[in-house]
Amino acid sequence: MIARASLAKPWLFAQAAAAIRGEPIPPEPTLAEEQELLLHHFELVCERFGAERATILMRKFACCYAQGRRGAREFRKHVATMKTPDEFRGIVAEYFPREVLALSQI
């Protein structure tokens, strides 16, 4: 279950490790930090698999980052059709969710 959850929250492992060590659990990142992390994740996938394959792989991973956020549907719609790294970066810049949904909105 932690592996599936980490698709949307890759910082979960650092939080779990801190909890196991009895240290303070690091806070959840801000949406801006998450966006930065998503772009870093993309760069790492590009290095490993090449730009073309990375762009296709990130269609799934990018959608996980947006889960439960206002604007996630619009973001997913654009991510699902991206074809180039520049297109991905543009979609993240323009459509990555800017706020978290309240529980009453889910």
Describe this structure as you would to a colleague.
It is a single chain. The model has no long low-confidence stretch (mean pLDDT 88). The longest helix has 19 residues, at 31-49. The chain has a single domain (30-105), classed as Non-ribosomal Peptide Synthetase Peptidyl Carrier Protein, Chain A. The chain has 106 residues and is mostly helical. Strands 1-2 form a two-stranded antiparallel sheet. 67% of the residues lie in helices and 4% in strands. The protein starts with a helix and ends in a 6-residue tail after the last strand. The radius of gyration is 14 Å and the shape is globular.
Question: Which segments are poorly predicted (pLDDT under 50) over 5 or more consecutive residues?
Answer: none
Helix proportion range: 55-70%
Tally of DSSP β-strands: 2
Q: Helix tally?
A: 6
Largest sheet: 2 strands, antiparallel
- The CATH architecture assignment turns out to be Orthogonal Bundle
According to CATH, the fold-level topology is Non-ribosomal Peptide Synthetase Peptidyl Carrier Protein, Chain A
Q: Output the helix-strand order.
A: HHHHEHHE
CATH homologous superfamily caption: Putative flavin oxidoreducatase, domain 2
The percent range for strand residues is: under 5%
Strand-pairing-aware structural class: mainly alpha
In round numbers, the mean pLDDT is 88
Distance between the termini: 21 Å
